[in-house]
Amino acid sequence: MERRVAIIGAGTSGLVACKYLLEFGFHPTVFEADDGVGGLWRHTMDSTKLQSNKQAYQFMDFPWPSSVKEDNPNHNQMVDYLNSYAQHFSLIPHIRFNSKVIHIDYVGGESAEQMKSWELWGGNGTPFASKGTWHISVQHTKNLSLEVHKAEFVVLCIGKYSGLPNIPEFPQGQGPEVFNGKVMHSMDYSNLDNDTAAELIKGKRVTIIGSQKSAMDLAAECANANGVMHPCTIIQRTAYWFFPDFNSWGLIVGFLFFNRFAELLVHKPGEPFLLGLLATLLSPLRWGIGKVLENILKWKLPLKKYGLVPSHSFLHDLSSCLLGVFPDNFFDKLNEGSIVIKNSQSFSFCREGLMIAGEAKPLETDIVIFATGFKGDEKIKNIFKSPIFQNHILGPATSTVPLYRHMIHPRIPQLAIIGYADSASNIFASEMKSLWVANFLDGKVEVPSIREMEKEVKLWEDNMKRYEGTYFLKSCFAHFSIWYHDQLCKDMKHNPKRKNGFFAELFEPYGQADYVGLTLAMSVATSPLLRPLHQLQFPKCPRLSSKSHFRPRRFHFLTKRTISAISAVAAEPELRTQQDQSVEADVLACPICYEPLIRKGSPGLNLSAIYRSGFMCKRCKKSYSSKDRYLDLTVTAGLKDYTEIQPARTELFRSPLVSFLYERGWRQNFRQSGFPGPDEEFKMAQEYFESAKGGLLVDVSCGSGLFSRKFAKSGTYSGVVALDFSENMLRQCYDFIKKDDTLSTTNIALVRADVSRLPFASGSVDAVHAGAALHCWPSPSNAVAEITRILRSGGVFVGSTFLRYSSSTPWFIRPFREKIVNKTEMKSPKEKPTKKLKSSPRGLCGGTITFLLFTGVPRICSHQQVDDHRKREYHTAEHITIKVGYTDGAPPWTPTNKGHGITSRPLKRDPESLT
């Protein structure tokens, strides 16, 4: 029998909950009181916009469209984004609009006494109890008709920042009833259409009660409407910490507080003894960072002048999810007098307006707007018909709503609440919770006993009280959000470590892009080709054959990836639709078996199409999808339980710092080593790529996309693939592309891949470029063999490298040169030597391929030659025409069950042919 699941609310939480439940095979019904999706975003002030950067506020697998150029989209753009999400994932047919849920009632279950004696949640510890069902009373908002729907499980996504406004109480004769003007809550103002709201405040003296985000936005909107003629007055009791903008400050806060190192500085619920000791020892560092930020804000902004310096710490607001962003030109409005701020602990109403404590005269005003928040706990309580469940929700006055994993009430069966607890990014937190609930309903997540859940809830509540003080009732876990998501990952049997590399794991901020892999389903049990890769393990001192290309020849940074195998995850359902396959499906190939990938999604070789597409190898039953704006086509894509050793020269360029600096000064300094500069290098490459016009170009080791963008903008090629092994380089490449409007319509795709296992079909690429990259490859010989395989007959490879080295050359790029430099004769571009190999490498059948290798460092023998070298001439190291053809009908590499899972069969070439 199919289990009925109901979702109440079609805001961000309700939509993402519906999406994941559908993916797990359920058929939920969503009840939405409004006539469209969006929830709170449909009812906001005209000036409301996203306070965080849009990249930090989006769904994992649905990025903002390229048409949205703003970093902080407004509320209309946000509603459009949510509408697009609902349409893209076919959620609309499951939503019943204009259906307001009056209350829900648990019927047919056991008695209250029996439920009280339960040891396991719901009596049996499963999401679906054997007897009880929820009866959902729904009123149609148009015709007011009533209906009762039944469901075995209910997901509450009604939020806590709407519906039930929090208005202070006043003594008799001192409240709004004695005021001649108009009194309303910010919720009422937000529900007005833009024209009605503008007409309401135009030419009026407006006073706003409150000091948080909505109060500041509302004050700015009133000041824009009335200017200094009718100043808007803010009466605040408590000041809070605000940023001047989020785009720059958000990045700073992300690196300082939203990474694993930052969470080592705070105590976490359920932490082991050593982590607790470390948090105690490091807590002064966190306190110092907070004080530094406070002083910077007070130095940069005139907070003291306008009475906006909070009496509490910056860390307090961070832990309580109370940080905000000042509206645009807010201090200009304060300076000109269109906004006035008054600090007061108490006030009362009078006929003319407000009597403020400490002032002799009343503040005359026409409209008073309370921006004093909402009663979120009572809103959730009121949706339950049962008084028992209502008491379970509210509990003691000194307690927040007790939810295990911030979703499950230990004493309320067959129900989950999503969107109640706050985090640094609520849309991301809701997505993680929705994924957890979907796994829970599918039987992949188990919950402990009721007693253990209540103990866990108490641990989290005590921790929030410790850091949030009186504001712990907001139920915010921003200061240890990674720790929280770690618990969800462990519950879902995924490894919580989502980064690549020790330093990235420790110091890079965490966000939704790091968890994209949780939604991928792959086969590890059914594919014999994949099983060895899952077991790929390298000790720090590997005992490998001296001929093995896995054996390090120099000291290496041993980077251990311990990423959760999506253990024994079932294979994705076979793709049944072929209608949206495109030509690229024949170009992109599985990096394991080199079979063409089957594509599902939007056609096209561009960022948007690739990001929204899924790829699958029919032979391996392995799926590949985009992560963080790039398509991951490495052999370990999506796998989270493996270790690897990469040379230092490779790991260097995976560093976030080097990736950020690469195009901001690092690459330009190559001129000091003989490179003529990016423009001249690009021009020279274009000359040699003349025969590849109109074809597909792959920019291997593209870095931040310096040359990839140039190739794409030239319009010379039908498509450009920017390919790199470094995740951080690809992120930088994406950022540069998005900032260049001329690239918005070009066919450029970002792909993460290993140069030694290029994910392209044999003979499918017309041109390959590798700028200043060969010396960074772990195995240049294997890489060259791969490039040979993927190039068409007549294809061209152009590469550049620091081929020669001196005593000052960094040690980590020497191994490749030591092997190659003595076999290569330096040639001037004017000589253009052409040589043919005596033996055929494994690769394409028939035809020739031209290899051109440039070096920025010519042979130097004297000081005079050093001076001459400053002319920055560029030199050709090799210009080789290669005959290619299979010797045994096999590609250069095939996976085997021997050794460590993959072996290589190197090219058989006559060494003398390379001299």
From TrEMBL:
Can you supply one Gene Ontology CC term for this chain's record? plastoglobule
GO biological process: any one? methylation
Classify the source by domain of life: Eukaryota
Give an example GO molecular function. Answer: flavin adenine dinucleotide binding
Residue ranges of every copy of the Methyltransferase type domain listed in the record: 698-798
Cofactor dependence is on:
FAD
Cellular compartments annotated: Plastid, Chloroplast, Plastoglobule
- EC assignment: the record states 1.-.-.-
Keywords from the UniProt entry: Chloroplast, FAD, Flavoprotein, Methyltransferase, Monooxygenase, NADP, Oxidoreductase, Plastid, Transferase, Transit peptide
Return the broad EC class. Answer: oxidoreductase
**Region described as Disordered:** 888-915
Query: What Pfam families does the database record attribute to this sequence?
Result: FMO-like, Methyltransf_11
PROSITE patterns per the UniProt record, alphabetical: PROKAR_LIPOPROTEIN
Is Kinase among the key words of this record?
no
Q: Which PANTHER family match?
A: DIMETHYLANILINE MONOOXYGENASE
Q: Which family does it belong to?
A: Belongs to the FMO family.
**What is the protein name for this chain?**
Flavin-containing monooxygenase
Its lineage reads: Eukaryota, Viridiplantae, Streptophyta, Embryophyta, Tracheophyta
